[in-house]
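Hi Y.,

Following your request, here is the sequence exactly as I used it, all 80 residues.
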Amino acid sequence: ARVREKLYEKGVPRELWEDALEELPADGGQVDAFLRSKLRGRPPDEKEKRRLTNALLRRGFPWGEVKAAWRRLGEEMQED
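Below is the corresponding structure, written out as tokens. Let me know if you'd prefer a different format.
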């Protein structure tokens, strides 16, 4: 729902919405993909973690979603 609101706010024509929405990963997937692409499998230091968290918050992701993504990523790194 949040994405649809943003598309509306930005003035994106409705006929383009479905294509844009189909490209989105499932909930949390965007945050996970962003973090994975930035970290490339290495653990972040505190400064980098703060910087990436702030980047996600600026992009409009809710804190709970960002926090959950860090938790999932941490669990993945422990398994390796």
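The mean pLDDT is 83.

Thanks again,
Q.
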